[in-house]
Amino acid sequence: MSADSGIPIPAMEVAWSQVVFHLWQLAIAWVLSLPVAWDRERESRGAGLRTFPLVAVAACGYSLVGISVLTSTEAESRILQGLITGIGFIGGGAILKSGGNVSGTATAASIWNTGLIGMAVAFSRYEIALVMALINFVTLRYVRHLKQNPGGRGDES
User: Does residue 20 contact residue 47 with C-beta atoms inside 8 Å?
Assistant: First the structure.
């Protein structure tokens, strides 16, 4: 009981092994988002070293909470659906249209992919997270040279 209000305060039980495991998963999501974040920052895009890691960690965190408190795969799928929609909304903010030119589509797709990386880590599907991080980085860094752009930039952003 609290000495001040007389309201009982429940004892907090902390499963430290779970805390360490979840911190480890959040750290993996953060690390896997850094190559894409670095690429976007280096290219002076609007989203970069802050946005991508935050999206990955948040997606991982929401997924971890959903996994730990929900009792059905149907409920977990609703969490994932909401995350996918919300991350798509964030990515949509990166797309700009000016006249006949559209920019920001690669950044928007990368934001969406970074959310998937965080979700995959939360479900301990590290192979999916790693492959998606590699595909995203290689696509941003090297595939742009294959794209022909008469404007001289060589890639949509």
Answer: no
Which pairs from 93-100 meet CB under 8 Å and 24+ separation? 94/45, 94/46, 94/47
Q: Which residues of 48-79 are buried (b: 16+ CB within 10 A; e: fewer)?
A: beebbbbbbbbbbbbbbebeeeeeeeeebeeb
Helix spans in 70-125 (H): 73-92, 105-122
Which tokens go with 71? 């009792």
Residue spans of the domains in the chain: they are 16-144
Q: What are phi and psi of 107, to 5 degrees?
A: -65, -45
Burial of 115 (0-12, 13-18, 19+ CB in 10 A): buried
Q: What is the pLDDT of residues 17-62, one digit of tens each?
A: 999 999 999 999 999 999 999 988 887 777 889 999 999 999 999 9
pTM, two decimals, is 0.81
From 63, 26, 28, 34, select the one nearest 51 (Cα to Cα): 34
Asked if residues 117 and 108 have their Cβ atoms less than 8 Å apart, the reply is no
Q: What is the pLDDT of residues 84-106, one digit of tens each?
A: 999 888 888 888 888 888 888 88
